[in-house]
Each structure stands twice: as structure tokens, then as C-alpha cells.
Design brief:
four-stranded antiparallel beta sheet; elongated; 4 strands
């Protein structure tokens, strides 16, 4: 009996110990299986131990320069220096003043020796007035006379016929220097000077008996006479009944003295003079019309 009780008492404790062992084994097995299925948890470092990765600094765009409108400075107009007006001399004492102005009109100053330096404005006015009317006032000519004289070309006659006298074109060369002087004059400066000298010119023109007339119209009439002149294309025949030569054709011999002078100048010289006077006449016309 004692042994059976003792077995009985031992049996429950044995069972209990067995159950406890199984439970322990089950718990251990579950933990092992759970560790195999669950990934290991990494150790989380503290925030203080974590070093932040360097952040790349994004360059900031430089600010665009502020546009400043340039200050516009308007210069004050510079007042021109007043031009001192030189008073005109009296007519009787104007020759020196005219000579100084003539010297500034041309670059061929050596040709000014052809101009007579005595009572120059009156000579110009009287000669121009006579020329416009077809006459020649030689004693009031503004220029010295040519050094060489006119010569004719004699063509021998056949049998008993008289010799023929023809115009010698080479004789026109004696006027070449006068034409060169006119061609060297600046037309703009000449017209300006003429307008400046106009009070003295009007005074000289009034002395001729034209107190209320405009001398510019007389000057333009003289220029028009030159522009209208035409030199015959055929040879010009001459006769010499006395010391002086005459034109054989009556239509040429009946021309005014002013037109005969233009014939003696020759075709080439006359064309140059026409060109210069045409330009001067146009500028005088514009000045007269206030343009």
C-alpha cells in the first residue's frame, strides 16, 4: 500500500514536471521559430550619433543688375559769336576794299593784274550799263587791253581775184587769261560780295541818271546778251577798207559793238564764259526772288 500511495503521490508530480518541461520546450521552440521568421532588428542609433549626410549647396543665381536709365543731358545751345560788321567805305575811297575782296574770290591771284585798280565800282557799273545796251565804253573798261592785237589770215587769191581775209582763230588766244580769271572765281562768293557791295553799286548807278532803277536787272540784261550770242559755224570772212577790219557779211557788220566783241572772243572762250555767267545769273535770280 505504501508503495502504491507513494507511486500515486509521485505520479502527479511527475506529470506536473512533464507538463512543465513540455511547456518550457514549447516556449523555447516557439522563440526559435519566431527568430527564424522575424528579421533581426537593427540597432537604432541615437539621433545624436547619426551624422547627417552633406547636402550639396545649390548656387543661387546672382541678382540681375538694376537697369538705370541714363540721364540725358541736353547741352545748352551755344550762342554764335556776334560777327562784327565792317562798314562799307565811301564810294570815292572804295578801291582798296574792292581789291581786298577780289583777292578772296579767286585762287589765280596772279591774274588780278588784268584788273584796273582805279575807280573800280564806277568802271564796272558804267561798262555793264553800256554793254547791256549793246555799246562798249572802252574808256571805262574794268580790264586792261590785251597785249597782242588782232590779226587776220590772208588766203592767196587765184589768178586776178583779190586775196580773201579770214578770221584767224589763233588770235582768240589773247583773251585766254581773261577767261581763266573768270573761270577761277567762286560764283557763290562772287554773288555774296556783289550783294554786300550793292549800296555802293546803286550809288554809282544813280550817278548815271538811274536813281530809281535796280542795277541787278541791268546786270542780268548784260548777262543775257552774252548767253544769247551765237558764233557762226562757217568761216568768217573779213574786209579791210581802211586800217580797221570789218566783217564781209552785212549781218555781222551790223551787229552791236558788244556783240562784235563777243565774236572776237572766239567760240571756245565764249562757251566757257556762258557757262560761268549762266550759273551767276541763276543765283542772282534766286536772290532777287528771295529764295
Amino acid at each position: 500500500m505504501e508503495s502504491s500511495d507513494q507511486n500515486t503521490n509521485q505520479a502527479p508530480w511527475g506529470v506536473i514536471l512533464l507538463i512543465i518541461a513540455l511547456v518550457v520546450i514549447g516556449v523555447l521552440a516557439w522563440q526559435v521559430l519566431d527568430k527564424e521568421q522575424t528579421p533581426p532588428v537593427e540597432k537604432i542609433e541615437s539621433i545624436a550619433e547619426i551624422e547627417p549626410e552633406p547636402v550639396e549647396e545649390i548656387p543661387q543665381p546672382e541678382p540681375e543688375p538694376e537697369l538705370v536709365e541714363p540721364e540725358i543731358i541736353i547741352p545748352e545751345p551755344i550762342a554764335p559769336e556776334p560777327v562784327e560788321e565792317v562798314p562799307l567805305p565811301v564810294l570815292d575811297e572804295s578801291d582798296v576794299w574792292v581789291q581786298e575782296n577780289l583777292s578772296s574770290l579767286t585762287w589765280r591771284k596772279e591774274l588780278l593784274k588784268l584788273v584796273i585798280n582805279d575807280d573800280m565800282i564806277r568802271r564796272f557799273v558804267v561798262f555793264t550799263d553800256n554793254f547791256a545796251q549793246g555799246g562798249l565804253a572802252y574808256e571805262h573798261s574794268p580790264f586792261t587791253a590785251p597785249v597782242t592785237t588782232f590779226s587776220a589770215l590772208e588766203v592767196p587769191a587765184e589768178e586776178e581775184q583779190e586775196a580773201t581775209l579770214l578770221w584767224d582763230d589763233s588770235s582768240t588766244r589773247r583773251f585766254s587769261l581773261y577767261v581763266d580769271l573768270l573761270r577761277s572765281v567762286d560764283s557763290d562768293t562772287l554773288v555774296d560780295w556783289y550783294l554786300e557791295a550793292k549800296p555802293l553799286i546803286d550809288q554809282a548807278y544813280a550817278e548815271l541818271g538811274y536813281p530809281d532803277s535796280n542795277f541787278t536787272e541791268t546786270l542780268q540784261s548784260a548777262i543775257t546778251r552774252v548767253l544769247d550770242m551765237e558764233i557762226p559755224k562757217e568761216p568768217i570772212e573779213l574786209v579791210r577798207p581802211s586800217v580797221m577790219y570789218q566783217y564781209k557779211k552785212e549781218e555781222l557788220e551790223s551787229l552791236d559793238d558788244a556783240d562784235k566783241l563777243l565774236l572776237r572772243l572766239g567760240r571756245e572762250n565764249l562757251l566757257v564764259i556762258k557757262s560761268v555767267l549762266l550759273e551767276i545769273n541763276e543765283k542772282l535770280a534766286r536772290e532777287s526772288n528771295g529764295q
